[in-house]
Amino acid sequence: MSSLWRGRLLAFVGVILVAFSLRSAVASLSPILAEIDADLGVASWVAGLIGAAPPVCFAVFGLLTPALERRFGLQRLAVGAMVVAAIALLGRSLAPDAVTLLAATTVLFAAISIGNVVLPPLIKTYFPDRVGTMTSIYSTMLAVAAFVPPLVAVPIADAAGWRLSLGLWSVFAFLAIIPWVTVLVRSRAAAGVAADGVEVAEPAPRALARMLRLPTAWAIAVTFAVSASSVYASFAWLPVILVDIAGVSHGAAGALLALFGGMGLPWSILVPLVITRWRRLGVVYAVAFTAGILAVAGLLIAPGSAVVLWVVLLGTPQMLFPAALVLMQLRARTHEGTVALSGFAQSVGYAVAAIFPIAFAVLHEATGEWAAPILMIGVLMIATIPAGIVASRPSTVEDEWERHHGPWR
Asked: Do residues 193 and 69 share a domain?
């Protein structure tokens, strides 16, 4: 581990703290929304907008982040995102009314969106020799940060009030600022060299627009979309579906949803290592596709016979999330290519994820049953076949551009 840390401990700590702050900020609100509603009177339309804000902000600011990165630089943008996130987290806990709560939450998710995009390029910049290890640590922290806040938010709110429960997560965001500010202070920007001796290439314009014409970029975007869409749809509708078609109790449905969410943790640890050390990217896609299709078939044919198995299988395609994070770094060889690929893939993925739960509701309302929405997940899984074929090619987006459109710069 010393070789991982040597000369870049600040960057290591910074990645960990930013990763935890990104997901804990999202996961800490919904468990105590009832307590907030009792105090502020959160209208249903406000609650709906708060629920829709994450994927919408992630999609919009994923497209804007590459331009912001060219203007301010990767490290400065990371610092700025965490400063805004920390202030918004604190402001959200002090909100005097529901509209202010919504405004603070929207600003918070905009900052988180920028952090989502810049973290993969930061890992590639500071840990080019440890992409798999660092992505495993990063994605594991995201999974932990999604799991811990729901466990402690309600007990803290019951003991000390919802404002403390909501505001304490700002501490991690403020702490995340410290290592990156220190990195900036030490940075030899005038020489084009970042702290710890890491070279930072001068950004090239129009890299994001080029992603639209590159199959590899689309393959990674589809990979991200499959994972994000199945997760958002499942968190929105899986308990209701299981109660209706499998006959489980509401308590059991909640426990099964927790099982589904927990499936992301082992894959966050294993998948980056499988891809970078063992070079088995195709296996990841094959397992995700097979598990997803089997889950759909089980829920349609015999939903009550092995409901735990179907939920485990449905949670297995979450392995595509850390796979996409790794590919954002492996399938780009330049700094600007990595930023553009990260922004493009996450924007497309979260845009699809924002639509998917709504499509579930529309189909269910139109048909009066859950078969059509469940089949949607099967269609989604089929998209992993072409995405996996293209993403498995050992080529970067820069190579792809140069083969068909001339020099990258």
From this structure: yes
Report the alpha-carbon angle 223-229-230, nearest 5: 95
Residues 41 and 187 in one domain: yes
The rounded distance, in Å, linking the Cα atoms of 128 and 256 is 38
Q: How many domains does the chain have?
A: 2
Query: Could you list the residue range(s) of the whole structural domain that residue 352 is in?
Result: 209-401
pTM, full prediction? 0.87
Tell me the per-residue pLDDT of 117-170, one tens digit each, with 9 for 90 and over: 999 999 999 998 889 899 999 988 888 887 788 778 888 988 999 999 999 999
Of 200, 225, 249, the last residue of a domain is 200
pLDDT tens column, 229-287:
999 888 878 988 999 999 989 888 888 888 898 888 899 999 999 999 888 999 999 99
**Using one digit for the tens of pLDDT, what is the confidence trace for 73-98?**
888 999 999 999 999 999 999 999 98
196 and 214 share a domain? no
Q: Are residues 238 and 183 in the same domain?
A: no
Residue 375 makes CB contacts below 8 A (sequence gap 6+) with 296, 300
Domain limit, last residue, from 183, 200, 217: 200
